[in-house]
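[step 3/7] fold_predict: job queued, chain A
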Amino acid sequence: MSVDDAAVASQRLGFAHVFEPAARAGAPTLLLLHGTGGDEHDLLPLGRGLAPGAALLSPRGRVLERGMPRFFRRLAEGVFDVPDLIRRSAELADFVSRAAGDYGFDAGRVIAVGFSNGANIAAGLLLLHPGTLAGAVLFRPMVPLVPEVVPDLDGLPVLIAAGLGDPVAPPPEVERLAALLRRAGARVTVRWADAGHELSSADLAAARATLAAEFGA
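[step 4/7] structure written:
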């Protein structure tokens, strides 16, 4: 896709983004969701490494915090603007649906791979728009919100990759998210790494194994 074509597609679908088609038939699509200050290019190498051959759909968050892209607003560190989260989750769910129509990938085979703020908006999609995702890999997530109605995520696979020394998403917060998703019926696996908020080789190995086992990625 040329630069001009990409700009037109981004305007049409509502998010600046990169799409890389699958290299093999039947491969899933990874929805790559960056952390604060990232952009649509940040997680492309990660996605290629986690699931070679998968399609990659990587949007840029539409909210700016001191010039840094995010997927939704926060009021302070760890304090989320829940009404904005709800609105932005709906926008992202609509983007994924429209992108599936534009690019021709299977909307029923989209797996979110999100880091930090991206993991939080992915969890928001699971809780508010459960039909959007077939699964999720959440690196360093927090509880984005507790919905009024817990969705039905019956059997949906979710990997949470957490750091034992993470000051941003500490272990009790991770366990709270895991419990919420399990209450919704998701099959949640929590993998702990001896790390902080940064990713480790153990996180990547767990993600690769999950994507291969659950989706043949």
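[step 5/7] annotate
The longest helix spans residues 82-103.
The chain has six helices and eleven strands.
exit 0
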